## 1
Amino acid sequence: TILVLDFGSQYTHLITRRLRELNVFSEMLPCTQKLSELKFVPKGIILSGGPYSVYEEGSPHVDPAVFDLNVPILGICYGMQELAYRLNPDNVIAGTHREYGHAMLKARSIDNHVDRLFEGIEESMRVWMSHGDKLAKLPDGFHTVATSDNSEYAAIGHQSKPIYGLQFHPEVTHTQNGTALLKNFAVGICGCKQEWTMQKFLEEAIAQIRHTVGEKGQVLAAISGGVDSTVAAKLMKEAIGSRFWAVLVNNGVMRLNECDQVKKDLTEALGINLTVVEASDRFLDGLKGIDDPEKKRKFIGGKFIDIFEEEAVKIEEAAANDPAKAGKIEFFMQGTLYPDVIESLSFKGPSATIKTHHNVGGLPARMANGQGLKLIEPLRSLYKDEVRALGRALGIREELVMRHPFPGPGIAVRILGEVTPEKVEIARQADHIFISEIRKAGIYDQISQAYAAVDPSRAVGVMGDKRVYGYIIVLRAVTTTDFMTAEAYNFPWDFLQRVMNRIVNEVHGVCRVVYDVTSKPPGTIELE
Ligand code: XMP
C-alpha cells in the first residue's frame, strides 16, 4: 500500500486513482493522521498538494514520525514545501508570482544518471503547475533533479535517502509522463508489486467479510437495484450465503416494472432471495400536498427508515424461529463507495469540521444506531468503475453492471412540484420510452445518466385536429466521469424527434417534449 496523506488539494484523490490504475493499492488519509495509529504498514508515503502556505500559522503539518518510518517519501507541491520546511523553515518563501498551468520541465543529469524518479522518462516534458509558494533554496542533503523556467527546484531528491519532492502535479493528466513518474516512485523506489487486481480484491473482500461477520452473524441489506447495492449483495452472498437478508422497499416512485425486474435479476441471475416490501401507498399518501423538493426528500428518507425498521424486526423474529438461521441480525450492509469515504477523510482545513460521510444507499445512521446494528461496507475502498469491474469479476451480467445511477427519492425528484399517482405514471411511461430508445440506438453506455421528468405546467397542443392541454416532458441525459460536473449529451436530431413522437403519441396527458441542454454547473443532474 502507498499511503497518500491529504493536505486538501482538489487533485489528491487522483493520486490514489493513478496508483490503482497501475495495480498498486493506495489509500488516502488526512494529513493529520498519526502514523502510530495506522492499521497497515505503507511501502511508501506521498504528501499531497494543498491550498495553504507552510509558513502560515495554523497551516497543516504532517506527523514528524513520517521520517522515522524509513519508507520512501514523495512530496507533491505543498507536500514538497512541507518536506523542505520541516528540514528548515527558511527553505520556503512566497513566490513573486503564482505559477498556474503548463510549464516545460528539464530533467537534469546527476552524476551521469538521471535520478531514479525520472528513469526512462525523456528529458523535456510538459507538466502542470499550480502554486504560489516555492523553495527558496535546496534543503540540506538534497540535489536538484529537474528545473522549469519558473521553478529552479521543480523536482528534488535526497542524495542518499529515498525522499523526493515535485513542485508540479504528476497526478493530473495535463502532466506528460505523470503516471510513469508515479510508477517509478511506487514500483521502482518503494518496491510495490503491481498485483492489486479485482480478482485479488474479491478474494480478500470475501475473507474479510467472513472474518467480520463470524460463524453465526446475520446481515441485513437495503437493495435499490443500482449497481452498488447489487454488487455488494452478490459479494455478501458469496461470503456468507443464507445468513444474508436483502430487502427492497417499493416506495411508489420507482421506475416502470422496476421492483419486479430487480427481484427477477437478484433471484434468477444472482441467486439472492430478495424481499420486496410493498409500501407505495404509504409513500404516495404522505407525498400529497408536498411541493418543496427538500421536504419531499426528507419525507421519503424518513418513511424509508420507518419501514425498514419495521421490516428488520419482522426478519429478526422470523430468524429467531428458524433453527437454520438462528442468530441475531448484527450487521447492516451499505454500498458506500470510496468517493463518499474520501469526502469524510479529505482534509478540510485546520478549523473546518471534517464532514461525516453521507450514506450512499440512503440508509441513515439512525437506522444502524436504532437497531444496534453494525455497519458493514464492503465497497468502501472502491471507485464506481472499480465496483463495476468487481461486478464483472463476480459474474454479474454487463447490463446490470452498467446501469445508470438512480436517486434514492426516485421519480419524486423528477416530477417538479407535487407528486401525484397520475404524474408518477406519466413519468414512468415517458422514461421507459426514452431509455428503450437509447438502448435501441446502442448509446446507453455512452451516456452516464438519462431520464424523463414531468413539468406540471401544462401547454396547449393540437392532436387529430383537436385541442389538447397536457404536461410537458423534460428529457435529460448527461455525460460525466464523477457526477460532480456534467455535460448534456449531444443526441442526433432524428433521435430526439423519434422519442418526442413516441412520447406524445403513447403517453396520455402529454403534449410537449423538451430536451434539457443545461450543463452541471449551473444545473444539477436531477431536476430537484
Ligand atoms: P445531482 O442532481 O446532485 O446528482 O447533480 C448527482 C448524482 O447523485 C444522484 N442523486 C442521488 N442519489 N440519493 C441518491 O442515492 C439522493 O437523494 C440523490 N440525489 C441525487 C443523481 O441521480 C446523480 O447521479
## 2
Amino acid sequence: MEVKNKIILALDVPSMEKAVELMDKVSPYLDTVKIGYPLVLAEGLESVSRVKEEYDCKVICDFKVADIPATNQKIADVTFQAGADAIIVHGFVGADSATSCLESANQHGKEIFLLTEMSHPGASRFLQPVSMDIASMGVEMGITNYVGPSTRLDRLGKIRQIIGKDSFLISPGVGVQGGNPKDTLEFADALIIGRSIYLAPDPVEILESIIDSIEL
Ligand code: O7E
C-alpha cells in the first residue's frame, strides 16, 4: 500500500460532522485514513464509504477483529462490502481466525493488516510475550501488512526483522503516546496519527510540521 507523506490519519472523531470538518482541512496532505469504532459506532459503516467517496482516499478499517473464524469472516465481508480497502485483524486469536479475514480480503480484492504488539503500556503483560510469535505466524501465513508499536522501537525493530524488509509495517503511538515520528520510520513504512492532529488547534500546522520533521 502506498501512503502519501507516510501518514495515516486515525479518524477517531465522534461524528461525521467532525470528520468532514477535519478532512476538509487535512485531506490535501493525506491519501489514507484509518476509521475505527469511534466513528463507525456513532455513524454506521456508511461513514467508510462517505469518507472514501468525498475525499478519494484509501480507508483502513480498524476493527481489531478477534473472534472465531466464522464470525471474523462475516465481519470482514461486511467491512469490505462497505468499501474498506483493508481491515485490521488481531493475531493473538490464532491462524484460523486470521485466515478467515485473509480469505475474505482475497475474495474482495482487498487487504488485511495483522496487529502484532500494541502500543499502550498494558500491552506488556499479555501481548508482549507472544507478539513476535504473532509476527512469525503472519509470515507463515503469507501476510504482508503488519501493525507494530512506535512506543517501543526496540520491539518494532524486532518485528521488522521477523516480517522482512518487503512487508509493509504501519505504526501507531507517535505524538500523544510518546513515539517519535522520524525514529519510528527507521522501521515502519507509515505512521498512524490521531490526537496530535485532530486535537490540535491548527491540524494543518501540526501535520505540516510532522511532515517536515520526517523529511529532514
Ligand atoms: O494515539 P493517537 O491518538 O495518535 O491514536 C492512535 C490510533 O492508533 C488510535 O486509533 C488507536 O486506536 C490506534 N492504535 C494504537 O494506538 N495502538 C495500537 O497498538 C494499535 C492501534 C491501532 O490502530 O490498531 C490497529 C492499527
